[in-house]
Protein 1
Amino acid sequence: MIDVPVPATRPPNDNRSTVGRRILGLHAWLTYIFLYAPIVVLVLFSFTTDTFGVRWTGFTFEWYLRLARDSRMINATINTLWVATMATIIATVCGTLLALAMERYRFRGRNGMDALLYLPIVIPEIVMALALLAFFSFAFGLLESLTGIKLRMNIWTVIISHVAFCISFVVVVVRASLKGFDMRLEEAGADLGADPQTVFWRITLPLIMPGVIGGALLAFTLSLDDFIISFFTVGPGTNLLPVEVYGRVKRAITPSINAISTIMLLVSMGLVFLSQFVQRQRD
Protein backbone atom coordinates (compact mmCIF):
# COMPACT_ATOMS: atom_id res chain seq x y z
CA MET A 1 0.00 0.00 0.00
CA ILE A 2 1.15 3.51 -0.76
CA ASP A 3 0.95 5.94 2.09
CA VAL A 4 -0.65 9.19 0.93
CA PRO A 5 0.59 12.14 2.97
CA VAL A 6 -2.24 13.95 4.72
CA PRO A 7 -1.77 17.71 4.96
CA ALA A 8 -1.52 18.88 8.52
CA THR A 9 -4.41 20.97 9.75
CA ARG A 10 -3.53 24.53 10.45
CA PRO A 11 -3.61 25.20 14.18
CA PRO A 12 -5.88 28.02 15.26
CA ASN A 13 -4.30 31.37 15.74
CA ASP A 14 -4.24 31.60 19.54
CA ASN A 15 -2.78 35.09 19.49
CA ARG A 16 -5.58 36.43 17.32
CA SER A 17 -8.19 34.76 19.58
CA THR A 18 -6.60 36.25 22.69
CA VAL A 19 -6.52 39.72 21.18
CA GLY A 20 -10.18 39.40 20.19
CA ARG A 21 -11.21 38.41 23.70
CA ARG A 22 -9.29 41.33 25.17
CA ILE A 23 -10.93 43.78 22.80
CA LEU A 24 -14.38 42.43 23.68
CA GLY A 25 -13.56 42.63 27.37
CA LEU A 26 -12.34 46.22 27.01
CA HIS A 27 -15.49 47.11 25.08
CA ALA A 28 -17.67 45.61 27.83
CA TRP A 29 -15.85 47.54 30.56
CA LEU A 30 -16.12 50.82 28.63
CA THR A 31 -19.84 50.20 28.13
CA TYR A 32 -20.35 49.58 31.86
CA ILE A 33 -18.39 52.71 32.73
CA PHE A 34 -20.41 54.79 30.26
CA LEU A 35 -23.71 53.52 31.67
CA TYR A 36 -23.03 53.41 35.39
CA ALA A 37 -20.32 55.99 36.10
CA PRO A 38 -22.85 58.89 36.17
CA ILE A 39 -24.99 56.93 38.64
CA VAL A 40 -21.99 56.29 40.89
CA VAL A 41 -21.09 60.00 40.79
CA LEU A 42 -24.69 60.92 41.65
CA VAL A 43 -24.67 58.63 44.69
CA LEU A 44 -21.28 59.86 45.88
CA PHE A 45 -22.20 63.53 45.57
CA SER A 46 -25.32 62.95 47.66
CA PHE A 47 -22.94 62.68 50.64
CA THR A 48 -20.72 65.67 49.89
CA THR A 49 -20.60 68.70 52.15
CA ASP A 50 -20.45 71.03 49.14
CA THR A 51 -23.58 73.20 48.98
CA PHE A 52 -23.85 72.93 45.20
CA GLY A 53 -23.12 69.20 45.07
CA VAL A 54 -20.53 69.43 42.30
CA ARG A 55 -17.32 68.99 44.33
CA TRP A 56 -16.26 66.47 46.93
CA THR A 57 -15.44 68.48 50.05
CA GLY A 58 -16.24 65.95 52.77
CA PHE A 59 -18.68 63.25 53.88
CA THR A 60 -22.03 64.04 55.50
CA PHE A 61 -25.60 62.75 55.93
CA GLU A 62 -26.93 66.29 56.21
CA TRP A 63 -28.80 66.23 52.89
CA TYR A 64 -30.69 63.07 53.81
CA LEU A 65 -31.61 64.60 57.18
CA ARG A 66 -32.89 67.71 55.39
CA LEU A 67 -35.11 65.55 53.21
CA ALA A 68 -36.67 64.07 56.35
CA ARG A 69 -37.57 67.63 57.45
CA ASP A 70 -38.80 68.80 54.02
CA SER A 71 -42.60 68.76 54.28
CA ARG A 72 -43.13 69.46 50.58
CA MET A 73 -40.90 66.55 49.56
CA ILE A 74 -42.58 64.26 52.10
CA ASN A 75 -46.02 65.20 50.75
CA ALA A 76 -44.82 64.53 47.19
CA THR A 77 -43.47 61.14 48.25
CA ILE A 78 -46.77 60.18 49.92
CA ASN A 79 -48.74 61.19 46.82
CA THR A 80 -46.38 59.26 44.56
CA LEU A 81 -46.64 56.12 46.69
CA TRP A 82 -50.44 56.44 46.73
CA VAL A 83 -50.56 56.78 42.94
CA ALA A 84 -48.20 53.85 42.43
CA THR A 85 -50.13 51.62 44.87
CA MET A 86 -53.56 52.33 43.40
CA ALA A 87 -52.32 52.06 39.80
CA THR A 88 -50.60 48.76 40.62
CA ILE A 89 -53.68 47.22 42.23
CA ILE A 90 -56.00 48.20 39.39
CA ALA A 91 -53.52 47.31 36.64
CA THR A 92 -52.70 43.94 38.23
CA VAL A 93 -56.33 42.87 38.59
CA CYS A 94 -57.35 44.02 35.11
CA GLY A 95 -54.10 42.84 33.51
CA THR A 96 -54.37 39.35 35.00
CA LEU A 97 -57.95 38.95 33.79
CA LEU A 98 -57.00 40.25 30.34
CA ALA A 99 -54.05 37.87 30.15
CA LEU A 100 -56.31 34.91 31.00
CA ALA A 101 -58.85 36.00 28.39
CA MET A 102 -56.21 36.45 25.70
CA GLU A 103 -54.59 33.07 26.39
CA ARG A 104 -57.69 30.95 27.01
CA TYR A 105 -60.29 32.23 24.56
CA ARG A 106 -60.63 32.94 20.87
CA PHE A 107 -63.02 35.77 20.07
CA ARG A 108 -63.69 38.32 17.36
CA GLY A 109 -61.28 41.24 17.53
CA ARG A 110 -58.70 39.28 19.51
CA ASN A 111 -55.83 40.29 17.22
CA GLY A 112 -56.84 43.92 17.43
CA MET A 113 -57.01 43.73 21.21
CA ASP A 114 -53.58 42.11 21.26
CA ALA A 115 -52.14 44.99 19.24
CA LEU A 116 -53.78 47.57 21.50
CA LEU A 117 -52.34 45.93 24.60
CA TYR A 118 -48.80 46.19 23.22
CA LEU A 119 -49.28 49.75 21.97
CA PRO A 120 -48.37 51.53 25.25
CA ILE A 121 -45.11 49.55 25.34
CA VAL A 122 -43.90 50.47 21.86
CA ILE A 123 -45.10 54.06 21.38
CA PRO A 124 -43.03 56.97 22.74
CA GLU A 125 -44.10 58.02 26.22
CA ILE A 126 -44.51 61.64 25.17
CA VAL A 127 -47.08 60.57 22.57
CA MET A 128 -49.11 58.69 25.17
CA ALA A 129 -48.87 61.61 27.58
CA LEU A 130 -50.23 64.01 24.97
CA ALA A 131 -52.98 61.55 24.04
CA LEU A 132 -54.07 61.22 27.69
CA LEU A 133 -54.00 64.99 28.15
CA ALA A 134 -56.19 65.44 25.06
CA PHE A 135 -58.56 62.70 26.27
CA PHE A 136 -59.05 64.25 29.70
CA SER A 137 -59.52 67.72 28.22
CA PHE A 138 -62.16 66.43 25.79
CA ALA A 139 -63.94 64.27 28.39
CA PHE A 140 -64.07 67.03 31.01
CA GLY A 141 -65.25 69.56 28.44
CA LEU A 142 -67.99 67.21 27.21
CA LEU A 143 -69.10 66.45 30.77
CA GLU A 144 -69.28 70.15 31.60
CA SER A 145 -71.32 70.94 28.49
CA LEU A 146 -73.82 68.12 29.22
CA THR A 147 -74.17 68.33 33.00
CA GLY A 148 -72.60 71.62 34.03
CA ILE A 149 -70.18 69.74 36.30
CA LYS A 150 -66.71 71.20 36.03
CA LEU A 151 -63.83 68.82 36.68
CA ARG A 152 -60.11 69.37 36.54
CA MET A 153 -57.13 67.08 36.52
CA ASN A 154 -56.05 65.79 39.91
CA ILE A 155 -54.39 62.79 41.49
CA TRP A 156 -57.05 60.44 40.07
CA THR A 157 -56.29 61.45 36.50
CA VAL A 158 -52.67 60.50 37.20
CA ILE A 159 -53.79 57.11 38.57
CA ILE A 160 -55.94 56.44 35.51
CA SER A 161 -53.06 57.43 33.24
CA HIS A 162 -50.64 55.13 35.04
CA VAL A 163 -53.09 52.25 34.81
CA ALA A 164 -53.33 52.87 31.07
CA PHE A 165 -49.66 52.06 30.48
CA CYS A 166 -48.93 49.74 33.43
CA ILE A 167 -51.64 47.27 32.46
CA SER A 168 -49.77 46.30 29.28
CA PHE A 169 -46.68 45.27 31.22
CA VAL A 170 -48.78 43.19 33.62
CA VAL A 171 -50.44 41.41 30.71
CA VAL A 172 -47.08 40.57 29.13
CA VAL A 173 -45.66 39.09 32.36
CA VAL A 174 -48.79 37.12 33.28
CA ARG A 175 -49.18 35.76 29.74
CA ALA A 176 -45.61 34.51 29.92
CA SER A 177 -46.48 32.59 33.10
CA LEU A 178 -49.49 31.05 31.36
CA LYS A 179 -47.48 29.65 28.45
CA GLY A 180 -46.45 26.47 30.26
CA PHE A 181 -49.64 26.10 32.27
CA ASP A 182 -50.90 22.50 32.55
CA MET A 183 -54.62 22.58 31.78
CA ARG A 184 -55.02 19.05 33.10
CA LEU A 185 -54.77 20.38 36.65
CA GLU A 186 -57.89 22.50 36.13
CA GLU A 187 -59.66 19.59 34.45
CA ALA A 188 -58.80 17.36 37.41
CA GLY A 189 -60.24 19.89 39.81
CA ALA A 190 -63.43 20.14 37.76
CA ASP A 191 -63.72 16.34 37.64
CA LEU A 192 -63.53 16.30 41.44
CA GLY A 193 -66.57 18.56 41.64
CA ALA A 194 -65.03 22.03 41.97
CA ASP A 195 -66.94 24.88 40.34
CA PRO A 196 -65.13 27.37 38.03
CA GLN A 197 -64.64 29.91 40.84
CA THR A 198 -63.05 27.31 43.12
CA VAL A 199 -60.81 26.06 40.31
CA PHE A 200 -59.60 29.61 39.69
CA TRP A 201 -58.91 30.51 43.33
CA ARG A 202 -57.48 27.15 44.41
CA ILE A 203 -55.61 26.00 41.28
CA THR A 204 -55.16 28.62 38.56
CA LEU A 205 -54.27 31.67 40.64
CA PRO A 206 -51.74 29.96 42.95
CA LEU A 207 -49.91 28.49 39.94
CA ILE A 208 -49.64 31.82 38.10
CA MET A 209 -49.07 33.86 41.29
CA PRO A 210 -45.30 34.37 40.64
CA GLY A 211 -46.17 35.97 37.30
CA VAL A 212 -48.87 38.10 38.88
CA ILE A 213 -46.52 39.30 41.62
CA GLY A 214 -43.76 39.95 39.08
CA GLY A 215 -46.14 42.00 36.92
CA ALA A 216 -47.36 43.94 39.97
CA LEU A 217 -43.81 44.79 41.06
CA LEU A 218 -42.92 45.88 37.54
CA ALA A 219 -46.05 48.06 37.34
CA PHE A 220 -45.26 49.63 40.74
CA THR A 221 -41.70 50.40 39.64
CA LEU A 222 -42.81 51.98 36.36
CA SER A 223 -45.47 54.06 38.08
CA LEU A 224 -43.08 55.17 40.83
CA ASP A 225 -40.45 56.37 38.34
CA ASP A 226 -42.72 57.89 35.70
CA PHE A 227 -42.28 61.58 35.01
CA ILE A 228 -43.57 62.47 31.53
CA ILE A 229 -47.11 61.12 31.89
CA SER A 230 -47.33 62.39 35.46
CA PHE A 231 -46.19 65.85 34.37
CA PHE A 232 -48.84 66.08 31.66
CA THR A 233 -51.79 64.69 33.65
CA VAL A 234 -51.24 66.07 37.17
CA GLY A 235 -53.45 68.93 38.20
CA PRO A 236 -52.73 72.09 40.18
CA GLY A 237 -52.28 71.51 43.90
CA THR A 238 -51.11 67.90 43.46
CA ASN A 239 -47.44 67.37 44.13
CA LEU A 240 -45.67 64.24 42.85
CA LEU A 241 -42.09 63.26 43.56
CA PRO A 242 -40.72 63.08 39.96
CA VAL A 243 -42.39 66.40 39.10
CA GLU A 244 -41.10 67.99 42.30
CA VAL A 245 -37.56 66.82 41.59
CA TYR A 246 -37.80 68.21 38.05
CA GLY A 247 -39.01 71.56 39.35
CA ARG A 248 -36.11 71.81 41.82
CA VAL A 249 -33.54 70.80 39.20
CA LYS A 250 -34.68 73.69 37.00
CA ARG A 251 -33.85 76.10 39.81
CA ALA A 252 -30.57 74.58 41.01
CA ILE A 253 -28.90 71.21 41.45
CA THR A 254 -28.15 70.61 45.13
CA PRO A 255 -27.05 67.54 47.10
CA SER A 256 -30.68 67.22 48.25
CA ILE A 257 -31.63 66.37 44.65
CA ASN A 258 -28.81 63.85 44.57
CA ALA A 259 -30.07 62.35 47.83
CA ILE A 260 -33.69 61.92 46.73
CA SER A 261 -32.50 60.57 43.37
CA THR A 262 -30.33 58.02 45.18
CA ILE A 263 -33.28 56.90 47.30
CA MET A 264 -35.50 56.53 44.22
CA LEU A 265 -32.72 54.62 42.48
CA LEU A 266 -32.34 52.15 45.36
CA VAL A 267 -36.09 51.59 45.65
CA SER A 268 -36.46 51.02 41.91
CA MET A 269 -33.52 48.63 41.77
CA GLY A 270 -34.84 46.73 44.77
CA LEU A 271 -38.26 46.30 43.18
CA VAL A 272 -36.78 45.17 39.86
CA PHE A 273 -34.53 42.61 41.57
CA LEU A 274 -37.48 41.39 43.65
CA SER A 275 -39.57 41.03 40.48
CA GLN A 276 -36.82 39.01 38.79
CA PHE A 277 -36.41 36.82 41.88
CA VAL A 278 -40.13 36.07 42.08
CA GLN A 279 -40.28 35.15 38.39
CA ARG A 280 -37.25 32.86 38.72
CA GLN A 281 -38.95 31.04 41.59
CA ARG A 282 -41.54 29.88 39.11
CA ASP A 283 -38.83 28.30 36.91
Protein 2
Amino acid sequence: MATETPRAPDQTLADLYPEFLAALLAGDRRRCEALTDQCLGAQVPILALYQQLFQRALYQVGEEWQYNRISVGRERLATAIVEGLLNRLYPRVITPQRSGRRIIVGSVEGELHQVGAKMVCDVFEMHGWEAIYLGADTPTTELLRTVLDLRPDAVGLSLSVYFHLGALLTALARLRGAHPELPILIGGQGLRQIGPTLSDDRKVHYAADLDALERLVKRLPVTDPPPEGSAAHGQIRA
Protein backbone atom coordinates (compact mmCIF):
# COMPACT_ATOMS: atom_id res chain seq x y z
CA MET A 1 0.00 0.00 0.00
CA ALA A 2 1.43 3.44 -0.95
CA THR A 3 2.41 5.75 1.86
CA GLU A 4 1.00 9.25 1.70
CA THR A 5 3.73 11.88 1.47
CA PRO A 6 3.50 14.34 4.39
CA ARG A 7 2.60 17.85 3.34
CA ALA A 8 5.08 20.64 3.91
CA PRO A 9 4.06 23.15 6.61
CA ASP A 10 3.47 25.93 4.07
CA GLN A 11 1.26 23.63 2.00
CA THR A 12 -0.70 22.62 5.11
CA LEU A 13 -1.34 26.27 5.91
CA ALA A 14 -2.36 27.06 2.33
CA ASP A 15 -4.74 24.11 2.24
CA LEU A 16 -6.39 24.86 5.59
CA TYR A 17 -6.57 28.64 5.29
CA PRO A 18 -9.90 28.85 3.38
CA GLU A 19 -11.62 26.60 5.91
CA PHE A 20 -10.09 28.49 8.83
CA LEU A 21 -11.23 31.84 7.40
CA ALA A 22 -14.75 30.51 6.84
CA ALA A 23 -14.90 29.18 10.41
CA LEU A 24 -13.59 32.47 11.77
CA LEU A 25 -16.18 34.49 9.85
CA ALA A 26 -18.87 32.11 11.09
CA GLY A 27 -17.73 32.51 14.68
CA ASP A 28 -17.02 28.77 14.95
CA ARG A 29 -14.46 28.71 17.75
CA ARG A 30 -14.26 24.92 18.01
CA ARG A 31 -13.57 24.48 14.30
CA CYS A 32 -10.83 27.11 14.46
CA GLU A 33 -9.28 25.25 17.39
CA ALA A 34 -9.46 21.93 15.54
CA LEU A 35 -7.80 23.39 12.44
CA THR A 36 -5.09 24.95 14.60
CA ASP A 37 -4.46 21.57 16.22
CA GLN A 38 -4.27 20.01 12.75
CA CYS A 39 -1.53 22.49 11.83
CA LEU A 40 0.39 21.69 14.99
CA GLY A 41 0.07 17.98 14.25
CA ALA A 42 1.60 18.66 10.84
CA GLN A 43 4.63 20.30 12.56
CA VAL A 44 3.77 23.81 11.37
CA PRO A 45 6.05 26.25 13.25
CA ILE A 46 4.28 28.65 15.62
CA LEU A 47 5.58 31.71 13.79
CA ALA A 48 4.23 30.45 10.46
CA LEU A 49 0.91 29.61 12.10
CA TYR A 50 0.65 33.12 13.51
CA GLN A 51 1.55 34.83 10.26
CA GLN A 52 0.07 32.68 7.52
CA LEU A 53 -3.12 31.61 9.28
CA PHE A 54 -4.10 33.92 12.15
CA GLN A 55 -2.77 37.24 10.88
CA ARG A 56 -3.73 36.61 7.27
CA ALA A 57 -7.28 35.68 8.29
CA LEU A 58 -7.68 38.70 10.56
CA TYR A 59 -6.51 41.04 7.79
CA GLN A 60 -9.22 39.55 5.57
CA VAL A 61 -11.81 39.88 8.33
CA GLY A 62 -10.82 43.52 8.74
CA GLU A 63 -11.29 44.10 5.04
CA GLU A 64 -14.73 42.46 5.14
CA TRP A 65 -15.73 44.84 7.94
CA GLN A 66 -14.22 47.86 6.21
CA TYR A 67 -16.41 47.26 3.16
CA ASN A 68 -19.51 46.60 5.29
CA ARG A 69 -19.73 42.94 4.33
CA ILE A 70 -19.75 41.88 8.00
CA SER A 71 -20.84 43.65 11.18
CA VAL A 72 -18.50 45.10 13.77
CA GLY A 73 -19.80 42.44 16.16
CA ARG A 74 -18.69 39.69 13.79
CA GLU A 75 -15.29 41.35 13.40
CA ARG A 76 -14.85 41.51 17.17
CA LEU A 77 -15.90 37.90 17.59
CA ALA A 78 -13.27 36.82 15.06
CA THR A 79 -10.64 38.83 16.92
CA ALA A 80 -11.69 37.27 20.23
CA ILE A 81 -11.40 33.77 18.74
CA VAL A 82 -7.84 34.42 17.56
CA GLU A 83 -6.92 35.91 20.93
CA GLY A 84 -8.21 32.72 22.54
CA LEU A 85 -6.06 30.66 20.19
CA LEU A 86 -3.00 32.71 21.14
CA ASN A 87 -3.70 32.10 24.82
CA ARG A 88 -4.15 28.40 24.10
CA LEU A 89 -0.76 28.24 22.36
CA TYR A 90 1.11 30.30 24.95
CA PRO A 91 2.58 27.30 26.82
CA ARG A 92 4.28 26.28 23.55
CA VAL A 93 5.75 29.76 23.17
CA ILE A 94 7.62 30.06 26.47
CA THR A 95 11.18 28.80 26.34
CA PRO A 96 12.92 27.68 29.54
CA GLN A 97 16.11 29.42 28.45
CA ARG A 98 15.63 32.99 29.68
CA SER A 99 17.84 35.80 28.43
CA GLY A 100 17.29 38.16 31.34
CA ARG A 101 16.12 40.82 28.88
CA ARG A 102 12.81 42.66 28.91
CA ILE A 103 10.59 44.48 26.41
CA ILE A 104 7.52 46.60 27.09
CA VAL A 105 4.92 46.55 24.31
CA GLY A 106 1.85 48.74 23.93
CA SER A 107 -0.78 49.68 21.37
CA VAL A 108 -0.67 53.46 20.97
CA GLU A 109 -3.31 55.79 22.37
CA GLY A 110 -6.68 55.28 20.67
CA GLU A 111 -5.59 51.96 19.16
CA LEU A 112 -8.05 49.24 20.21
CA HIS A 113 -6.50 46.36 18.27
CA GLN A 114 -4.15 44.20 20.30
CA VAL A 115 -3.71 40.82 18.59
CA GLY A 116 -0.67 41.97 16.61
CA ALA A 117 1.00 43.35 19.72
CA LYS A 118 0.38 40.08 21.56
CA MET A 119 2.02 38.19 18.70
CA VAL A 120 5.02 40.51 19.01
CA CYS A 121 5.26 39.67 22.72
CA ASP A 122 5.14 35.97 21.89
CA VAL A 123 8.02 36.29 19.40
CA PHE A 124 10.16 37.86 22.12
CA GLU A 125 9.11 35.17 24.61
CA MET A 126 10.22 32.53 22.08
CA HIS A 127 13.68 34.10 22.30
CA GLY A 128 13.78 34.08 26.10
CA TRP A 129 12.78 37.68 26.73
CA GLU A 130 10.28 38.82 29.34
CA ALA A 131 7.57 40.55 27.29
CA ILE A 132 5.22 42.88 29.14
CA TYR A 133 2.10 43.93 27.22
CA LEU A 134 0.41 47.09 28.49
CA GLY A 135 -2.78 46.52 26.50
CA ALA A 136 -4.76 48.37 23.89
CA ASP A 137 -5.05 52.17 23.93
CA THR A 138 -1.93 52.63 26.05
CA PRO A 139 -1.70 56.24 27.32
CA THR A 140 1.70 57.67 26.42
CA THR A 141 2.15 59.06 29.92
CA GLU A 142 1.62 55.61 31.44
CA LEU A 143 3.98 54.07 28.90
CA LEU A 144 6.71 56.51 29.91
CA ARG A 145 6.09 55.88 33.60
CA THR A 146 6.31 52.11 33.11
CA VAL A 147 9.53 52.43 31.11
CA LEU A 148 11.02 54.51 33.92
CA ASP A 149 9.91 52.02 36.58
CA LEU A 150 10.86 48.76 34.82
CA ARG A 151 13.88 49.89 32.75
CA PRO A 152 13.35 47.55 29.77
CA ASP A 153 15.91 46.69 27.10
CA ALA A 154 13.47 47.78 24.37
CA VAL A 155 9.99 49.17 23.79
CA GLY A 156 7.53 48.08 21.10
CA LEU A 157 4.67 50.20 19.72
CA SER A 158 1.84 48.78 17.61
CA LEU A 159 -0.31 50.72 15.14
CA SER A 160 -3.11 48.88 13.35
CA VAL A 161 -5.10 51.88 12.11
CA TYR A 162 -3.35 54.67 10.18
CA PHE A 163 -5.74 57.21 11.72
CA HIS A 164 -3.79 56.91 15.01
CA LEU A 165 -0.44 57.80 13.44
CA GLY A 166 -0.30 61.10 15.33
CA ALA A 167 -0.43 59.22 18.63
CA LEU A 168 2.46 57.03 17.51
CA LEU A 169 4.58 60.03 16.50
CA THR A 170 3.90 61.69 19.85
CA ALA A 171 4.88 58.55 21.73
CA LEU A 172 8.08 58.21 19.69
CA ALA A 173 9.06 61.81 20.33
CA ARG A 174 8.45 61.58 24.07
CA LEU A 175 10.22 58.25 24.40
CA ARG A 176 13.20 59.50 22.44
CA GLY A 177 13.35 62.69 24.49
CA ALA A 178 13.34 60.81 27.80
CA HIS A 179 15.43 57.78 26.72
CA PRO A 180 17.63 58.69 23.74
CA GLU A 181 19.45 55.34 23.65
CA LEU A 182 16.44 53.05 24.15
CA PRO A 183 15.73 50.77 21.14
CA ILE A 184 12.14 51.26 19.94
CA LEU A 185 10.34 48.81 17.67
CA ILE A 186 7.33 49.86 15.59
CA GLY A 187 4.98 47.80 13.47
CA GLY A 188 1.41 46.98 12.59
CA GLN A 189 -0.96 47.07 9.65
CA GLY A 190 -1.29 50.85 9.92
CA LEU A 191 2.38 51.25 8.98
CA ARG A 192 2.47 49.05 5.90
CA GLN A 193 2.97 52.01 3.57
CA ILE A 194 5.07 54.41 5.66
CA GLY A 195 6.82 52.25 8.26
CA PRO A 196 10.32 52.41 6.74
CA THR A 197 10.18 56.22 6.63
CA LEU A 198 9.78 56.37 10.41
CA SER A 199 12.94 54.40 11.16
CA ASP A 200 15.54 56.98 10.16
CA ASP A 201 16.67 57.10 13.78
CA ARG A 202 19.18 54.28 14.27
CA LYS A 203 17.37 53.33 17.49
CA VAL A 204 13.91 53.07 15.87
CA HIS A 205 13.35 49.77 14.09
CA TYR A 206 10.42 49.00 11.79
CA ALA A 207 9.33 45.35 11.50
CA ALA A 208 7.09 44.78 8.49
CA ASP A 209 6.04 41.30 9.61
CA LEU A 210 6.79 38.61 12.19
CA ASP A 211 9.66 37.17 10.13
CA ALA A 212 11.32 40.59 10.05
CA LEU A 213 10.65 40.94 13.77
CA GLU A 214 12.36 37.64 14.53
CA ARG A 215 15.44 38.72 12.58
CA LEU A 216 15.42 42.00 14.47
CA VAL A 217 15.20 40.30 17.87
CA LYS A 218 18.40 38.42 17.09
CA ARG A 219 20.19 41.70 16.25
CA LEU A 220 19.15 43.78 19.25
CA PRO A 221 22.17 44.61 21.41
CA VAL A 222 22.52 43.44 24.98
CA THR A 223 21.97 46.32 27.38
CA ASP A 224 23.30 46.94 30.87
CA PRO A 225 21.04 49.01 33.12
CA PRO A 226 22.74 51.95 34.84
CA PRO A 227 23.53 51.49 38.53
CA GLU A 228 21.11 52.63 41.21
CA GLY A 229 21.65 56.24 42.16
CA SER A 230 23.49 57.19 38.97
CA ALA A 231 22.46 60.23 36.94
CA ALA A 232 21.24 57.93 34.19
CA HIS A 233 19.17 55.73 36.51
CA GLY A 234 15.82 55.00 34.91
CA GLN A 235 17.20 55.28 31.40
CA ILE A 236 18.52 52.53 29.18
CA ARG A 237 21.92 52.28 27.59
CA ALA A 238 21.88 50.28 24.36
